[in-house]
Specification:
The complex is a heterotrimer of chains A (94), B (396) and C (456).
Chain A lengths: L4 E2 L7 E6 L2 E6 L4 H6 L6 E2 L6 E2 L12 E4 L4 E3 L10 E3 L5
Parallel strand pairs in A: 2-8
Antiparallel strand pairs in A: 2-3, 4-5, 6-7, 6-8
Chain B lengths: L2 E8 L3 H12 L4 E4 L8 H4 L3 E2 L9 H10 L3 H5 L10 E5 L2 H13 L7 E4 L1 H7 L9 E5 L3 E2 L2 H14 L3 E3 L4 E6 L4 E5 L4 E9 L5 H7 L7 E3 L1 E6 L9 E4 L5 E4 L5 E7 L1 E2 L6 E2 L2 H14 L7 E7 L2 E3 L6 E4 L6 E5 L5 H18 L17 H4 L23
Helix pairs in contact in B: 1-7, 1-10, 3-10
Chain C lengths: L5 E3 L3 H12 L5 E3 L21 H5 L3 H14 L4 E3 L2 E7 L2 E6 L2 E6 L3 E3 L3 E3 L12 E3 H11 L1 E2 L3 E7 L1 H12 L3 E7 L8 H8 L1 H16 L4 E2 L2 E7 L6 E6 L2 E6 L2 E6 L1 E3 L2 H5 L4 E4 L4 E4 L12 E3 L9 H18 L6 H24 L13 E3 L4 E2 H11 L4 H8 L12 H12 L3 H4 L11 E2 L3 E2 L7
Chain lengths: 94, 396, 456
């Protein structure tokens, strides 16, 4: 279930990416955070308790939205522009 | 009106606090004076290696004494300080490094370190997370690592609980040798009159040695470290490298702590900070030697101030000029593991005027009368004969 | 040749500072983490999204357009480095990271305009998926055109509380409630504020009125906030006096005002002092923005919360100081005027600090997480304080790992200080501040030097 609700940019070209192996779509101009949270309700599991996290500050300060890609690379979702074909692992495949 | 104590200790690092604890446990009244906070300098901000492997032989009797104390921390100070007897793996880049490790193992065989030499294939098999291009390693199963911030604070708290009068933010401004003991003056105005005085002031100890008429060539070094974000369990052992370059361990909560370069001293020489270039060098090396970390982020850097002697051995023993004064400083690259043993040795020196642990090599007068002194050092200074512990001045 | 001055931040303060230095014939380097200038307040979308400046920035559209245009006009006269992080400072140079590559830049004159982030105190469930800062909620809407939820509660304190709630309402999002943690009586301080900045106060009242007209529940004196929901937000509970309340919602925006980003000032070696108004340790500066370190200047919210209009003036004033200190001709009359305006704005800010006071008795239960990176609960913090007799915040950090996570204490710092002050019976001023450490934000281990052959 998504957390974010898209209000504008509905007609922007869709950009396909993968969330826990599943093909999903974001929109041109999305941050990775927006793209994930319009499709899911968390971006990662926390380090210790493994509780779901969805970011917090959205301005690159709190470092809560670092996500992992299938190839092991890391990126900070709120400050990274969505690009086609990203394969994000939230660690929350439920 | 001076407060009276049996012993005053200058410096609330691990050496000072462990000595204070030991003395208090044997019934001595102790005042411990620190210019800042206990454990805030090298004792608390060092890398956290609890390692005997790689030390010069003359340090090994002391290291072995400390070795017996580490597993007892919980009983001694109430916390285990995250001490883990993980083993210490010293990596060899090439055959020459491997030969050095082999020579070292042979040289220290009598001390009971139980070093195990590991070849290339065995290294890959047992420690697959280490870059497979490395040539081999020497493993010391009895070594480990701990959290210096907890251990240093833990000893200070335990000392206080045992009755030591711990005075933080109380810099000692001078002392005088009296007929019976010493009188001390401090920045806060408090004065003390004591029988014994311990100079455990770390990188600041040269000032107090000079006051005793024993100027020493102490220099300061500023080891620099980085820490990664928490990652899945990877480093099962404490890592060192022959010839220096890197040392690494993984803390129980997942962060890897890696050192290897020096920080830059700030305007106030008491402080230093890692340089961007130095930190980046450590980071890049880490990603190269531990390929699983190539996507990890570094989240914090720090450096600390350590006191070093030119022959890389500490000063530990009775003053050559003032009866009742004991020096214990200059432990760079060795202090963390040794400190609990050093505390016991200091307590011996106060209680009996001598100790069963071999410390002759660390006598302060080796800097004043080298020709008469060398003959009495059991194992030589080690300088030039044996590999240095780590070329880059590793803090433990 | 002398190196160029370095400006960190391209928000209102940084932009005005850059324009001022350019006018004096200098060519500053302007480093900013964002891909486009404007700072957080005048942040731009990543791609054009069809919205007018009025739709995006509301009453501040004119200022946003003016600053964006002003910066565009500077582009060929400055060295602008967007999407670049200053991750370390020292010895007269900055380490800059762009696209996972780093370069070391020597500067002559450092003007820090690093801005602010939301100030947070923890409450049960604040780490739940769906709880964001007020600033975060605003950025989602302003820069991304998304709402953080379909039924949103805004809670906390500060002018941003009403602005963001109003922006969401105007965007057609259902605002389930506005929970102000300060008592209603605090709002009478707005009368004093009105004398200094009538427009700002009237705007705030307009937002509140619009929310009320739309039937949004507006509560005051809300305490003991608690998030409901296991894996994501399903509601929020709070108390007013002894009465307990609950609202269903699927997202929460929360903050207690703003907190300056002071890490770089710390690395630059600037002296700090406790500011009772900001309830935080801030770099000290003179009226012009000079820090305690020669050649280092601080402007905007990064030096103490004053708002965007003040940031513009402080940026210009600090740039004039830099020009003066370089013995270049500078407009002394302008400098005096700016300082006068800043003094008036400071009096307005005094009133706002009283109208939206930082809570004095924020209770944090032992089970509540205080550090969201390392997931350390308040009870663990208290146990560490008692066990080690901690009285100073960096010593507490050393024994508890509080503030050691990825955020470097940005988020948890205020909460840690509260707990330490309470537990050790000291003031917030006395417990000190978490010292800034490099890297200012996480950097990859594989960070490459831009010119590896030039490395020593």
């Amino acid at each position: 279930m998504s957390l974010f609700k898209r209000l504008i940019r509905m007609d922007q070209p869709p950009i396909g990416f993968f969330l826990d192996g599943k093909a999903v779509e974001g929109r041109a101009g999305d941050t990775v955070l927006t793209a994930i949270l319009t499709n899911a309700d968390a971006v990662r599991a926390s380090d210790v308790s493994k509780n779901p996290r969805a970011g917090f500050c959205q301005m690159g300060a709190c470092q809560d939205c670092w996500v992992t890609l299938e190839n092991g690379e890391r990126l900070r979702a709120c400050t990274t522009l969505l690009t086609a074909g990203l394969r994000v692992v939230t660690g929350r495949a439920a | 009106m001076s407060a009276r104590f049996d012993v005053a200790i200058i410096g609330g690092g691990l050496v000072g606090t462990s000595a204070a604890l030991s003395l208090a446990r044997s019934g001595r009244s102790v005042v411990l004076l620190d210019k800042g906070f206990c454990g805030a300098q090298a004792s608390g901000v060092n890398y956290g290696g609890v390692r005997r492997q790689g030390r010069p032989p003359e340090q090994l009797p002391l290291a072995q004494r400390a070795h017996g104390i580490w597993p007892e921390l919980a009983r001694l100070i109430g916390i285990d300080g995250e001490f883990i007897r993980s083993g210490h793996l010293k990596l060899a880049r090439d055959e020459a490094d491997m030969a050095t490790l082999e020579a070292y193992a042979a040289r220290v065989a009598e001390f009971g370190l139980d070093l195990e030499l590991i070849g290339r294939n065995s290294l890959a098999e047992r420690f697959g997370w280490v870059n497979s291009s490395l040539c081999g390693a020497s493993f010391c199963a009895g070594d480990g690592h701990a959290n210096p911030r907890l251990v240093a604070s833990g000893f200070a708290i335990a000392a206080r609980r045992t009755g030591v009068d711990v005075r933080e933010k109380t810099a000692v401004t001078g002392f005088l040798r009296l007929a019976e003991g010493f009188s001390l003056e401090t920045e806060t105005g408090a004065t003390f009159s004591v029988r014994y005085l311990v100079n455990a002031a770390g990188a600041w100890a040269d000032t107090f040695a000079a006051l005793a008429g024993e100027p020493v060539p102490l220099t300061r070094i500023y080891p620099s470290m980085i820490v990664t974000e928490p990652v899945a369990p990877l480093m099962s052992v404490n890592i060192g490298m022959e010839g220096g370059g890197i040392y690494a361990r993984q803390a129980p909560h997942g962060s890897c702590i890696i050192g290897g370069e020096r920080g830059a001293v700030l305007e106030n020489p008491d402080f230093s900070r890692p340089t961007g270039e130095g930190a980046r060098t450590i980071m890049n090396r880490t990603a190269e030697i531990f390929p699983a970390l190539k996507h990890a982020q570094a989240i914090r850097f720090w450096s600390g101030t350590e006191g070093a002697m030119p022959d890389r051995n500490p000063v530990l023993g009775l003053s050559s000029t003032m009866p009742g004064l004991i020096h214990a400083f200059g432990f760079t690259g060795a202090g963390f593991q040794l400190a609990p043993g050093v505390g016991e040795v200091i307590a011996d020196l106060v209680r009996m005027g001598e100790t069963n642990t071999a410390i002759d090599a660390f006598s302060i007068d080796r800097f004043f009368a080298p020709t008469t002194k060398t003959a009495r050092i059991p194992y030589g200074s080690g300088a030039g004969l044996l590999p240095q512990p780590e070329k880059t001045g590793v803090p433990s | 040749m002398k190196p160029a001055p370095l400006i960190v931040g391209a928000g209102p303060a940084g932009i005005r500072a850059a324009a001022t230095l350019v006018r004096a014939g200098l060519r500053p380097v302007v480093v900013d983490e964002a891909p486009a200038p404007g700072g957080q307040i005048y942040r731009q979308p990543l791609v054009p999204d069809g919205r007018s400046p009025e739709a995006r920035y509301g009453s501040e559209a004119g200022k946003a357009q003016r600053l964006h245009a002003e910066f565009a006009g500077l582009l060929n006269r400055i060295d602008y480095r967007p999407e670049t992080l200053v991750w370390n400072l020292g010895q007269g140079a900055a380490d800059l990271m762009h696209a996972e590559k780093t370069t070391r830049l020597a500067y002559d004159g450092l003007l820090l305009a690093a801005g602010a982030t939301d100030r947070i105190l923890p409450f049960p469930g604040w780490t739940t998926s769906g709880v964001f800062t007020l600033g975060g909620a605003q950025i989602a809407l302003k820069a991304q055109g998304v709402s953080i939820g379909e039924r949103v509660v805004f809670a906390g304190s500060g002018p941003l509380l009403y602005l963001v709630a109003w922006q969401y309402l105007t965007a057609g999002v259902r605002v389930a409630g506005v929970l102000e943690c300060a008592p209603f009586s605090a709002k009478f301080n707005l009368v004093q504020g009105f004398f200094h900045e009538p427009r700002t106060v009237l705007l705030g009242l307009r937002y509140a009125a619009a929310l009320r007209m739309a039937g949004v529940p507006m509560r005051f004196g809300a305490s003991d906030l608690a998030v409901a929901g296991e894996t994501r937000v399903t509601g929020i509970g709070w108390q007013e006096g002894r009465r307990k309340y609950h609202l269903a919602c699927d997202a929460i925006g929360f903050a207690l005002g703003l907190k300056p980003e002071t890490q770089l000032a710390d690395l630059a070696g600037c002296a700090f002092a406790f500011s009772p108004r900001d309830c935080a340790h801030l770099p000290t500066r003179d009226g012009a923005g000079r820090s305690s370190v020669a050649g280092t200047y601080i402007a905007g919210d990064g030096a103490g919360i004053m708002g965007a209009d003040a940031a513009e003036r402080a940026g210009e004033r600090a740039a004039l100081a830099l020009i003066e200190d370089r013995a270049l001709p500078f407009d002394a009359a302008r400098a005096i005027l700016l300082e006068k305006q800043l003094a008036t704005m400071s009096r307005f800010r005094d009133a706002m600090a009283k109208a939206f006071p930082f809570p004095e008795d924020w209770s944090i239960a032992d089970e509540t997480l205080i550090c969201r990176c390392e997931e350390i609960a308040a009870g663990e913090a208290r146990a560490a304080i008692r066990q080690f007799g901690s009285t100073e915040i960096n010593r507490l950090k050393a024994v508890s790992r509080l503030g050691m996570g990825r955020c470097q204490g940005r988020v948890c710092g205020a909460g840690i200080a509260e707990i330490l002050a309470e537990e050790s019976g000291q003031s917030l001023a006395a417990v000190g501040r978490l010292r800034g450490q490099a890297p200012v934000k996480p950097v990859p281990l594989t960070l490459l030097d831009t010119l590896p052959e030039a490395a020593e």
